[in-house]
Amino acid sequence: MRRLPLVPTLIVAGAAAIMTWLGIWQLHRAAWKERLLAEYAANAALPALDLDPVIARGADVPLAFRRVLITCHARDLAPQARGARSLHGEGGYAYLVPCRPGAGGLAGRIMVNVGWTALPLHDRRFTVDGLVAGRLGAEQAGKPIMLTSATALAPLQPAAPPSIDEVPNNHMSYAMQWFIFAGLAVGIYLIALARRGRRLPPEP
């Protein structure tokens, strides 16, 4: 019986083991994402939450995709523009202003989507001073939280609220890819060994 070439065998075995581990890791990530999406769906079904007392108390509550009310104090600000869709799915631009400019903590992280236009607006300034009702988007530690207002500021139209369906969940397909890569690596190596064995003369 011929001996397996040591170094190539170790390399292929190590690579296959790593790819298999990555596939298993993605399976765990898929399970975690399913739990996260279920939490988002539960949040979306809850009644509207008044954020003012939450912010005042410094309470820690799940906010992603929650309907909320908050008092904003943003006056005469130039908005940030970004690609977005209208309530009817049309492409265009949304305009974002901080709810409470200069505030710390949660209040300082909330950006209000004040509306949508099909074509970009230039040199426009907005004031959001009062109660805003809308839906929050996904929450990531240390990053701004998007609040899409249910009503738009003139001359804007309401923008599409954040949708849980837009949250990517590709971990299962990534896991399958890693398992396929591991199987292909082993399979190709076994074929190479078989061809090598046919070319070599028999051992004495």
Name some characteristics of this structure.
transmembrane; single chain; 7 strands; alpha/beta; Surf1/Shy1; membrane; Surf1/Surf4; SURF1-like protein
Structural overview:
InterPro entries: Surf1/Shy1, Surf1/Surf4. With about 200 residues, this protein is an alpha/beta fold. The chain has four helices and seven strands; from the N terminus they run αβαβββαβββα. The protein has a seven-stranded mixed sheet. The longest helix has about 40 residues, at about 5-45. The N and C termini lie close together (about 10 Å).
In short:
This protein is α/β, with parallel strands linked by helices and 204 residues long.
Task: Please render the helix and strand layout as text.
Elements: H1 6-44, E1 49-50, H2 51-57, E2 67-77, E3 80-85, E4 91-98, H3 105-109, E5 110-117, E6 126-136, E7 145-149, H4 171-199
Parallel strand pairs: 1-2, 5-7
Antiparallel strand pairs: 2-6, 3-4, 4-5, 6-7
Helix pairs in contact: 1-4
